[in-house]
Amino acid sequence: MAIAIANKKVRKNTGKEISFLKNIKSLSLKIDLRKKVSVREIVFFTTQLSLMVEIGMPLNVSLSNIARQIKNPEFKQVVTGINTDVEGGRLLSDALSKYPHLFSEIYISMVKAGESTGQLKDMLDRVVEMQEKQEKFINGIKKSLTYPAVLCSVSVAVVIFLLVFVFPRFAVMFEEIKDLLPPTTKLLIWLSGLMTSYWHLGVILTGISGWGLHAYIKSDKGRLAFHRLKLKLPLVANIYILTYLAQTMRILGFLMHSNVPLIDALKITRKTCKNIIFAEFIEKIADNVEQGKGMSFAFTEADFVPESAKQIIRTGEETQNLPKVMLRLSDYYEEEIDNRLQGISTVIEPMLLIMMGLVVGVIVISLILPIFKLSKAAH
């Protein structure tokens, strides 16, 4: 997609095909910008802009002052470009839309709503609130999963080290008592020989398997199957469902609270959804709204939506408090996800430690027992 966007922009500017080398340079610039501008820098920019708008400073002066405070050269260039467009008579939302890799459609829609209603400062504050809550939510998930992931990686690394570098040295010693070796020692010697002799074949097979799986998931059929699987896997299915619900309700709640039309808010939310099943669910909500059935109808029919949420959304729609209800539900679900992840992490961590101890223990015992037998044979 990035290549297509880069090509389209270049053709529009030059009116003709350009060389492959220039195309790659254009693409690499976009990738660098995406990598080098952090969420915290976007939050800083939005917070500063809100403050300066609140004290009545002209927009172009505000942007110029913020650009001078930014240390990131890539982001400074972006803010300077936004300021140039604003001084040229463009709306702030239109200037921001030139940088979709930095400012999401949700961000731009809320700024546009603030411009049209004369409440730009309030909208910028809501954008900051949304970004900070999303960042806190994502960091919470990363924090819960980091230790188990590190523990698994260390366990695998220790086992590979023992099999590749330790066992081959002892395998030569055990040749004399090969028939007397315990079954675990024979198995580990065989695995060690397999890994040391055919490691290149293992790397090739792993690469081909990884590439094949990646290609399948990227295909329409594979992507749909993978997204369905995530919503049905034991233990983690509920976490995925709650995660998508929390993100959907937070985005919808903020957009609706910012006076963005409901149909537009649903379309924007659908584009941000990374799961096909949930994207279809949001599209169904939009169809029901256009048909006059309301939002709660689609929520009631969805099997994966908790019953409590269905009732609360129905009540919120009847009392015309849907934005408030959506935001409260998203807060509740994010807290619930954090609690569940901590609970799973609390259970998994000791299990991983026990498994790691058992595996390493079996390997060590498989080395020690034959050594004892060798010493007895020597005596």
Secondary structure category: mainly alpha
What is the CATH homologous superfamily assignment of the largest domain? Type II secretion system (T2SS), domain F
- Number of E-type strands: 0
CA-CA gap between termini: 72 Å
Count helical runs: 17
Instruction: Tally the structural domains.
Output: 2
Secondary-structure arrangement, i.e. CATH architecture of the largest domain: Up-down Bundle
What is the H-and-E element order? HHHHHHHHHHHHHHHHH
Low-confidence stretches: 1-35
CATH topology of the largest domain: Receptor-associated Protein
Relative helix content: over 70%
Mean pLDDT: 80
Rg over C-alpha atoms, rounded to the nearest angstrom: 28 Å
Shape: elongated
| Portion in beta strands | under 5%
The biggest sheet amounts to:
none
Subunit organisation of the chains: single chain
CATH class of the largest domain: Mainly Alpha
